[in-house]
Amino acid sequence: MKKTIIKVGIIVIVLAAVACGIVFALSNSKDNAGIAELTGTAAPTSEVYREETESETLPGTETVSENETVSQTDAVSEQTTEAVTAEETIEETTKAPGKAEIVEIFNKSVNSVKKNASSVYLNYCENSLVDEPVINNRIVEKVASRLIEANMGVNEKDELYSSRSDIDAKFPLANKSYSSTLTAGDISDASYSVKDGKAEIVIKILRDEPGIDPDKAHINNAFDTVKKSDIVEGAGDVGMAFIKEPSIKVGYKNGVIKAVIDEKTGELLTVNYYHEWSLTLSTTVGLNVTIWFGLEKDYRIDY
After folding, report:
1. pLDDT in tens, 127-143
2. Where are the chain's structural domains?
3. pTM to 2 decimals?
């Protein structure tokens, strides 16, 4: 995530520079220090297995006694009742958990990673541009598009975290002893399915409007995100000289977690985090900018 923030810092500085007609030297931008280390969906539904019961063949039209007719009718009725009861029981035992329960299952699994995992692999981290930048200056807009395109793509790949300190620092939530405090109130939807002994969970996070207090953002209960403080630090004194700090707003949408959990042990095997975040700001020379970025991180966990 540090590389993500450095890239965004570079973008902010260059945009401010172009708007003011200033050329900045960016050769040492990769050496910015003190930037916080951060990390950057059709959902399957649970299958319900139903036991199909064969239709009962009623007695034929041959002549039978009244007692035999009553006995056979009672037998058919009893068998039908047993079949319905069995079907209802199967439905109850295989019914998919609700949103709150799915969140609880995910939390328990992901929160055990920092305690029990022997290693965590970051398969990749990918930055993307979700929409074209919205800038009230066509010249700057073209520069921004080229600059952002050059800085997007996979910028971290195949990283191994094997020490407890590295796992705590690199795996969400960074530098905390836990990885999720999500509740049902933070999500818009969730699904749960089981295949080959593995539970597959998909959780969709509610949107957080630009300018939201980071402590109140739904997404920050499970994702490491870029925050206003990171933008300010990434731009540095040079960039902030041309940016109106109060105008900086960050928002989040389309947050999705896809997790695979061992159904027997409850251990988290893989997890993918994707969300989109916006940067809105104004400069001292009247430049207004809104940019939406995408950020995806994919992990594998070993025990």
Report:
1. 999 988 899 988 777 76
2. 2-41+98-302
3. 0.72
